[in-house]
Amino acid sequence: MSAKKVLIVDDEPDICELIEITLMRMGLDSQSAQTLTDARLLLKTEPFNLCITDMRLPDGNGIELVEHIANHYPDIPVAMITAHGNMEAAVRALKAGAFDFVSKPVDIQVLRRLVSSATSLPKDIPQQKQKTTITGSSLAVASLLENIAKMARSQAPVFIHGESGSGKERVARMIHEQGSRAEAPFIPVNCGAIPSELMESEFFGHLKGSFSGATTDKKGLFQAAHGGALFLDEVAELPLHMQVKLLRVIQEKAARRVGASQEEPVDVRILSASHKNLVELVNAGKFREDLYYRINVLELKVPSLRDRLEDIPLLARQIVGSLAERSGLTTPPKLDSTAMKALLDYHYPGNVRELENILERAIALAENNTITAADLQLENRLTHSVTQDEPQNDSLELQSREKQAIMKALEKTRWNKTAAAKLLGLSLRQLRYRLEKYDIE
Q1: Among 66, 231, 347, 398, which residue carries the largest CB count within 10 Å?
Q2: 239 with 210, same domain?
Q3: Domain boundaries, position 39
Q4: pLDDT tens digits, 262-284
């Protein structure tokens, strides 16, 4: 089996020689070109598994080569060599389609990791290895899957935006699983769930004795994700002081633990998401513009469930099957025609997450192993979205059905009120109000 081959494009002989020696020690063949013209000629005549190019070349710049390769040889990843600290050039290269970048002077360990990742990119992901999937055959899903596959072939930061419950973390996992870091950790973190005073320690770790309560050394999320990906969910919730620190880590590819005097290298791909409009937050001074451009190198929009209603029949059946298996049911309940019509007519403000909640409750209420429109209780759900505490004046029939639904949920959860409230799509406060209203002890 022949060794993989790398094209080096740089007009500085010392840089070419350094990269050639590094590649040779990694068991890789290489060939060098000093100009864009020579590089294009070599690409026409010889097969390559990777291209490493300098930004500045005698007859053009590396961005032109990145675009040329992206258009004519999309299977060849390109790494850009940029001047130290020139993040603007690195971001331009990544937006143009570069796999990753390395700064001058070239750090051999960083170069080795980059080459190793780039030359191990999977050509195709076997179906059985795709742990995470998105169900649907709509054009919106087909386009999303195509973009996920493209972004998986890069190391550039990706910003995923979409409504709450639309599946942003699922999309981030798929990007990670289809890329060269698939065997390394994927660490998700909800930025809005970490207390502000603990954020620096959670993200970057700390040394024993660095503050009150630091009884042992602790790794941060960046160290835990080393070699893999860190998914920053609801990144818009980061306070401004943490945005500054995050920006530095992304730019320097190094993090300093609380109490430490030196930074340590971190090799992490940043994936982030928010349901908020970051551009509006930038304009309002609530999100740093420089950080926005660093995390939003590649952008991916996740469609709402309303944008792919044709996927609901398949999606609903899959969810019912999964919930039934989790509940220990031997045969999943069937959705009758009235239930399916009701699902197709609903507007889903909570997207796929809300659909899962609706169906979980319906399974608890269904009789004869059949889910009907009444079991979905979508009329009640619309009522709940109108008021926090007291429902509108419902008919006696609706009240009777509501009481019956509450009793079934309580029995299913063995009278665990918190679990029953979740099953019903209510807050605990709303459930307590109804327990008093219907005199349920």
Answers
A1: 231
A2: yes
A3: 5-119
A4: 999 999 999 999 999 999 999 99
Please indicate, yes or no, whether residues 283 and 337 belong to a single structural domain of this protein. no
Which helix (H) or strand (E) element contains residue 103? Answer: strand 100-103
CA distance 55 to 10: 8
d(CA 121, CA 390): 56
- Tell me, yes or no, whether 283 and 316 share the same domain: no
Torsion of CA 354, 174, 73, 80, to 10 degrees: 110
Q: Which pLDDT tens digit goes with each residue over 138-176? A: 999 999 999 999 999 999 999 999 999 999 999 999 999
Query: By C-alpha distance, which of 124, 398, 161 is closest to 271?
Result: 161
The encoded tokens of residue 247 equal 């920006």
**Whole-angstrom Cα distance, residue 42 to residue 52?**
13
Is 263 in the same domain as 354? Answer: no
CA-based end-to-end distance of the chain: 74
Q: What beta strand segments (E) does 5-77 contain?
A: 5-9, 29-33, 50-54, 56-57, 60-61
